[in-house]
Amino acid sequence: MDAPAGFRHPSQKQGRSRSAKSHRGGGTAAGGRIQGGPTQLFDDTSTQPPPQPQPDYYDTTGAEPGYDTSVGMATPGSMSNVPYSMNDPMANMAMQYGASLAGQTGEMLEKNVDRFISVSKLKYYFAVDTAYVGKKLALLSFPFTHTNWSIHYNNQDEPVAPRYEINAPDLYIPVMAFVTYLLVAGYVLGTQNRFDPEQLGMQASSGLIWLVIELAIIVLSLYIMNLNTQLRTLDLVAFCGYKYVGMIMILLSGLCFNSLGYYIMLLYMGTCIVFFLMKTLKVLILSEANPHSVVHGRKRGTYILVFIAAMQPLFMYWLTSHLSTFKEKID
């Protein structure tokens, strides 16, 4: 009958002392069995090698060994019995090479971008806030009561940021107006049962191409007339992009009042953009207050000023006329 746990039979105590004596005499057998004595209850581990350290991929948070909780998947060490080490020289070499390659690529892109356009100068045209946007939209919609059209400069002869100067050109309103124009144009096509996803792409491409053509004509005209002005290329992009605000209002008016509303709003917004550009560009083209700007001939400057302003209503009509068939609108 088996003895209960923790109960020690007197013979066991006697057998352990015998095994100790026989062990001192060198009379042990293989497998841990003492010759002439009872079987040991526990293996003798005094001659076994020390336990191996835990692999470095074991998680100490209670997860199963070989499971990386940071990535939610088994580590390479768990797939094989060989522990995975982060000190692998090949892995470190690959990571260092990848980091250096990424840094070189970033520097190359930054240099190439700065070659064509300065990022710091581009940020200037997007330095706007909500108050500026609201005031500028109101100015573009009704510029007839505005009196001060001059642009202020700081101590370094640099123009003040648009959020501090309502007369300064910006690119935020032209970009957002262009995107909104595409959305309104798609909605107009939908009301006329002519909407096609490809139409939006064609509309965007057409608007960008005509904008590039317009800028090329203006730059070429300034070059032919040999006019040195304070206008920069991004200034021209901003001033030519303000017409998309009027184009949005023209299309919305056509949706509400059909063709009559379209042509009335086209006439009004065309007048607004011409008046706005005549007053704004007059300071930049015909101004003689800035000693760094030399304008050869006020007549030639006046001609180019009228030419730039007069082109805007023509492009506004050209880019919206194919959407003006409001009589075909589906109820």
UniProtKB/TrEMBL annotation:
It holds the Pfam family YIF1. Residues 25-35 have a biased composition (Gly residues). Signal peptide: none annotated. Keywords: Endoplasmic reticulum, Golgi apparatus, Membrane, Protein transport, Transmembrane, Transmembrane helix, Transport. Residues 15-24 have a biased composition (Basic residues). Residues 1-74 are annotated as: Disordered. The keyword Signal does not apply. It is found in: Endoplasmic reticulum membrane; Golgi apparatus membrane. The chain crosses the membrane at residues 171-190, 202-224, 236-255, 261-281, 302-319. PANTHER family: YIP1 INTERACTING FACTOR HOMOLOG YIF1 PROTEIN, YIP1D-INTERACTING FACTOR 1, ISOFORM C. Has a role in transport between endoplasmic reticulum and Golgi. Belongs to the YIF1 family. This is Protein YIF1.
